[in-house]
Amino acid sequence: MKITSKKTYQVVLAMLEYKKFTQYQISKDKDITFSLVNKVVNWFVQRGYVARQNGQYVLISPPSIFGIFPIYRKMKPYASFDVSLSRAKILSMIKGRGALCLTTALIYYDDYYRDPVIHAYLDDKKIIDELKSMRKGYSRIELYKEDLNKDDFVKMGSHKVTRKIRTVVDLFCSNRSYAAERLIKKEWA
Fold it and tell me: The domain containing residue 21 runs over which residues?
């Protein structure tokens, strides 16, 4: 089962969001056919990641579910720059034009892990041209193209960032699952 396909991904997100759920609930809330929800949920039940308890389904192993995503999706930046700008100025450039992701978005959900690199979903030619023309420096920015679900972003403060679940998915897909450990324990333990 390809969990990164559009509707299947929505079912998996709902399972991770609800933690305890019924198939009907996901089908109704997310406007997805019951047959697809049934197929996806049963696939996870067969692998032991979800279990049926008291007429509901319960997540048994969320980290294992997140661990499936890198099989179908790898996150590699399409552009990266080392510029002579402060972190605040780079974030100001991105504001309103892109969404923060990976460890840059993680800061909004867990105050422990810090990464000096700025990660963002951004496809703005004007900003890219500006970054290309800047003097080299020690501030690193890595840019990614949105490839999963354009609705996975939420406004937090003055920036748009990936939602909590999407942040963890992205961290797993970029081989940074270690950065999500505290958040996973806090959310799904």
Answer: 6-60
